[in-house]
Amino acid sequence: MNFSGDVKQAIPRPAVAFSGGPSPLLQGWREFRRSGAPVRFLCFEGGAWADVEGEAAVALRRAFLDGRVVAEAAYAGRAFLFDFLRLVRIDAVTAEEVPMGWIDDRGACFFPVPDGGRKRKRGQQELEDGASSGVEERSDESSSDDTVESGSGRANKAARGAWGKAARLEETDKFYQVVRKLFLSGIAPRAGGGGVAITAVHKVAQGPRSRAFQLQGQLLAAARGAGGGNAKFAWYGAPSADVAAAVEHGFGRTNSRVLGHRAHGDGVHLSPPQSPCTSAMLAKADENGEAHIVLCRVLMGRPETVAVGSSQFHPSSDDYDSAVDNMQNPRWYVVWSTDMNTRILPEYVVSFKCPSLQQTQGSSEATSELRKPSPAARDMFPTLLAEIQRFVPTSKLQTLQGTYNRFKKGHIKKDQFIRFLRAFIGDRVLTTVAKKLRGY
Questions:
Q1: Confidence of residue 369 (pLDDT cuts 50, 70, 90)
Q2: Over the chain, what is the mean pLDDT?
Q3: Which pLDDT value is given to residue 142?
Q4: In sequence order, what are the residues at sequence separation of 6 or more whose Cβ sits closer than 8 angstroms to the Cβ of residue 128?
Q5: Cβ-count burial 258-288 (b if 16+ within 10 Å, e if not)
Q6: In this structure, how many other beta carbons lie within 10 angstroms of the beta carbon of residue 305?
């Protein structure tokens, strides 16, 4: 296996089926009651999770906050019913069902137990193997039904529970040896005398997510030439709960907030295969000193250079697909949030302990920069826009970014920009985002 550059597409592996609890409807009600205010709704179509956007998302959020367990909304020229307890979207005309889920304002993910992403008619029997539409939450709050090792911390419970879609590799396994060598060769020089110890390597099962990734590669190759569809290996680092969610259900948010004003835009930041330490700095160890990073395959298409501290959250034009910090010698690959679940494919989860890295996280210049943001970083507008873009259709993102750039250059006043935001996205969405930011 060659980790130094572009890689070939892997052969898809079958997804693992999961069984739900004894009472999916009751479990769904409990999760509905426990959830915070939703900030994103997603439906599973075409082998990937896609956002519900525009007025439909606003209507669903309003119904959810009003306590309704079934809501009606229309988008893409079709009318649907959304069942928050069974986590399905039902076509009002054909009665066809697809899985749906949401991410709340705490970053917790609420998605159905995977059944292969298969569509089914209303009333059709569940899968013969017993997979149900019960809810599994993978976040920093574990459900009361989760089975975990006693004595583990809350984040550690989430991380351990999420490896249900991944198989633990034996130390004699050839893939374990390859991943171990790649990880240690990049992190050992930075570990100093404290050393680093790998506690586990898990191989992530793929299924529909792999097929969506391959399709994206074909589309990029058609748009950018053969090289545009080539995948690269890269490391993803984040707090344990985010790693767990990414492996289990997909990326719910970017890790740029961990970097603060050192981020190159609001996107998922991944480091090259020879630089695991860069991403490991974003991983936070639990109370047992264990942290986790993920070796992924990434589709970059045609990247552009984005400066540090930028508030950019989408390609600057149709000529680009992703971003890097430096075109000749990139330290970061950046995939925008609109593409993070179709152009990043988690492959291996590496769990490790590194005491010296923890000390570095607490005392290095990188961490001190996070604790002492620049005046520009204190400006709430970049953070506000990064959240607002989740509610805005892709077709309107350039208008939003363009107006913000005019505001930054002083071409329009602050009160004018606020009036624009209220008219552009509505007071309800603006209020929801503002409340979330106050909780940071």
A1: very low
A2: 76
A3: 33
A4: none
A5: bbbbbbbbbbbbbbbbebbbbbbbbbbbbee
A6: 14
- In DSSP terms, 83 is beta-bridged to 70, 88
- Comparing CA positions, the residue from 162, 123, 122, 126 lying closest to residue 142 is 162
Alpha helices in 249-316 (DSSP H): 256-259, 276-280
- Strand locations in 266-378, DSSP E? 267-271, 290-299, 303-305, 322-324, 333-336, 344-353
C-beta of residue 324 within 8 angstroms of C-beta of residue 335: no
Judge contact between 258 and 318, C-beta under 8 A: no
Q: How many helices (H) and strands (E) does the chain have?
A: 15, 19
Residue 81 φ/ψ region, left for φ over 0, alpha for ψ in the -120 to 50 degree band, beta for the rest: beta
Task: Specify whether the backbone of 258 is left (phi greater than 0), alpha (psi in -120 to 50) or beta.
Answer: alpha
What is the C-alpha separation between 22 and 147, in angstroms, rounded? 15
Q: Which of 214, 288, 283, 192 shows the shortest CA–CA distance to 246?
A: 283
CB contact at 8 A, 354 and 337: no
Side chain identity, residue 346: P
Sign of CA dihedral 60, 137, 276, 308: positive
Q: Do 248 and 237 meet the contact criterion of CB atoms below 8 Å apart?
A: no
CA torsion through residues 42, 203, 15, 48, sign: positive
